[in-house]
């Protein structure tokens, strides 16, 4: 009797090996730029935004956390901005950028106020990079106006 499964096993294994890089969960890279300004915020822009051409801030640490509202939140990726202010952060974890979930993004550097936001990651990080706006100051310096704005700023979900 002819065993039909025998020739299929190598074919199936070959297909699985070839398809592994295409499977979701790996390969999401968050891109953006850090600028100095009078406001503090993190938001997405279109790739042709003029602000992306400005001189940026170097040595800003960017951290991305999965499940920010849970006790077991996880650091999913981190990176440091380059001399022109641009950055890339590889995000580990299945579903980054396409699952319906929120992430916390934090940015900090000595001599500047920390900034963070909770948002959905852009589905197309190349077409919708992040713009991180930072203000000079110290992280512990209280700013009544910024605290008031933060209290009333809607959380992005």
What does this molecule look like?
This protein is α+β, with helices and mostly antiparallel strands and 157 residues long. It has one domain (28-152): Immunoglobulin-like, CATH 2.60.40. The chain contains two helices and eight strands, in the order αββββββββα. The protein has helices spanning 5-19, 144-152, and strands at 28-36, 41-44, 61-66, 74-80, 86-91, 103-108, 115-119, 130-134. Strand 6 and strand 7 (115-119) form a beta hairpin. It starts with a helix and ends in a 5-residue tail after the last helix. The relative contact order is 0.23.
Question: What's the helix and strand layout?
Answer:
Layout (H helix, E strand, L loop, with lengths): L4 H15 L8 E9 L4 E4 L16 E6 L7 E7 L5 E6 L11 E6 L6 E5 L10 E5 L9 H9 L5
Parallel strand pairs: 1-8
Antiparallel strand pairs: 1-5, 2-8, 3-4, 3-6, 6-7
